[in-house]
Amino acid sequence: MNTKFKRIAAMCTAMVMTGAVLTACGSSSKDDGADTTTAAAGETTAAANGDETTAAPAGDSDTGLSGTIKVLHHRTDRDQDGTMAKLTEGFNALYPNVKVEYQSFTNYADDIATMMQSDNYGDVIMTPQALKQADLPNFFASFGTYDDLSQQYYWLENYSVDGQVYALPTGGTASGVLYNKRVWADAGITALPTTTEEFIACLKQIKENTSAIPYYTNYNAGWCITQWQSLVVGASGDPDYNTKLLTEKTDLFSKGSPYDAVYGTLFDIYADPSLHEEDPMTTDWEGCKPAFAQGKIATMVLGSWAISQFQEAAVQVGADPADVGYMPFPNSIDGKIYSVSSNDYMMSVNKNSANLDAAMAYAKWFCTDSGFAQNEGEISGLKGAPMPDTLSSFDELGVELFVENPCPAELTGKFDEIAKASEVDPWGDASTNYKFRMAEAAFKGEGREAYDKIAADVNAAWAASRDEILG
Fold first, then answer.
1. Residue 158 pLDDT
2. Cα dist. 127→104, 170, 305 in Å?
3. How far apart are CA 63 and CA 205, in angstroms?
4. Closest alpha carbon to 12 in 174, 247, 225
5. Beta strand 98-105 with 346-349: parallel, antiparallel or unpaired?
6. In DSSP terms, which residues pair with 400 in a beta bridge?
7. Residues of the chain with pLDDT under 50
8. Residue 115 and residue 218: Cα distance in Å, rounded?
9. pLDDT score, position 178
């Protein structure tokens, strides 16, 4: 699957967060169509999940703002189930003269890239994840200074230029593995794995003792394999890991490295036909949700953003949403398991908006007071907000959840620059990316020799671009 956009390497505030709770593709699917929903002031549409969402920011409503704004986003499911329209009621309670229209895209990254070739890309948009940091001021309006806003929000570092912030977080996720608790229990598994070897052994036990697919690759949905990249920094246990890749000039792949732990596990699973679906080329993202809820699928690598979607699927098919579990990637470091939290999609305002003040008001309200992150079971982008309770296994395993430290100012944007110049692009989902090369080699049964050759190619390309860019 080729796409113009690739995710910018993660970075965040230097802070350790404890509790339970990554990059989020929302309701992405292989369809290329777009759904459009309009929610006018006063419109009432009940959200499918029944959550009560109200806005309660400080201050009175502002009847001075008026006009129509269009919000472009990737959550087609939340348009279809009425959630976005329901949210608008809270916004219109404060800004009754602002009409909000939504347009959602199942192929958001490609579609928004095309739209941004002109000035007509809505008023409020989910920030394209691959847009170069330095280019943010060319497209978006500033929300204010980093010094001020970083006191209130997480994950602003990669969305700030010259001290100004151009995107706010809609929520955040933790990295890990979605699993069906009932299936794992039926397989006779009594304790969650704490090493990658134990993880694969659990999948084999599921194959032996149940009729479920131990691991569902979702390979036909190209973005799903990129979810494995979200495990790498957590597998390192080091909030400075990506910075050290630059300052210490180490290879991405070496025996026992975080990249090797993650992608070596992927390769071993993909290489064993008994551990995954029969035909990875015909997988179905939307269809996998009810199948998972019904116990036909046991395990998938997805960010914690997926929990609420799979719980809703369970309700829709009459299964128990409590069966949807979430565990950290089991790469123990000195007996400790880590997971990293990072932002889901950020939200920005088109600097060319004809109703800029109204668009800014909506974006600030959505990211601060809408309750969207809480309803989705995500980490709030607001510092000091309570953690979601969807990740009880993190507490059980004593997982240390951390936020990646920002890189030094002189290295800002360098990881992304090297990623693109080398065409390694850890977050990329082009068909030539190493993740897909490894997957194809595994499916073909080419063995670990093929994995080692691809890893060596990655190291060479990365090192050449790194040395050229950093000197």
1. 86
2. 13, 10, 17
3. 61
4. 174
5. unpaired
6. 338
7. 1-60
8. 28
9. 97
Structural domains of the chain sorted by starting position, each given as residue range(s) with its CATH number in brackets:
1-19+172-343+399-471 (3.40.190.10), 27-170+346-386 (3.40.190.10)
| Tokens standing for residue 81 | 């189930």
- 276 phi-psi bin (left φ>0, alpha ψ -120 to 50, beta other): beta
Could you tell me the two tokens for 455?
């890893």
pLDDT at 57: 39
Rounded-to-integer distance, Cα 376 and Cα 388, Å: 9
Alpha-carbon gap, residue 404 to 164, rounded angstroms: 20
Which pLDDT value is given to residue 63?
64
Assess contact for 393 and 144: CB atoms under 8 A.
no
Going edge to edge, which strands form the sheet with 299-301? 299-301, 177-180, 324-327
- d(CA 5, CA 427) in angstroms, rounded, equals 9
The residue among 83, 74, 84, 106 whose CA lies nearest residue 347 is 74
Query: Which pair of tokens denotes residue 231?
Result: 């495990």
Give the whole-angstrom CA distance, residue 226 versus residue 428: 7
How many CB atoms within 10 Å of residue 191?
9
Kindly report the backbone phi and psi dihedral angles of residue 306, in degrees, each rounded to the nearest multiple of 5, phi listed first. Answer: -75, -15
* 164 backbone dihedrals φ, ψ, rounded to 5°: -110, 145
Q: Which of 319, 324, 328, 280 is nearest to 306 (CA)?
A: 324
Tell which residue, 298, 280, 271, has the closest CA to residue 215: 298
Summary count for the chain: helices (H), strands (E): 18, 16
- In this structure, which amino acid lies at residue 383? K
β-bridge mates for residue 161, sequence order: 164
The tokens describing 120, both together, are 């007509």
- pLDDT for 266: 98
Query: Do 365 and 138 touch, CB atoms closer than 8 A?
Result: no
Enter the tokens of residue 337: 């398991």
Do the beta carbons of residue 365 and residue 91 sit within 8 Å? Answer: yes
pTM, two decimal places: 0.70
Which residue, 332, 326, 337, is CA-closest to 300?
A: 326
**Residue 406, SS3 per DSSP:** coil
Give 368's contacts (C-beta < 8 A, 6+ positions apart): 57, 168, 382
Structure confidence at residue 58 (pLDDT)? 35
The C-alpha atoms of residue 366 and residue 14 are separated, in whole angstroms, by: 25
Question: Cα–Cα distances in Å, from 338 out to 321, 394, 404, 451?
Answer: 26, 9, 12, 25
Residue 442 pairs in a beta bridge with none
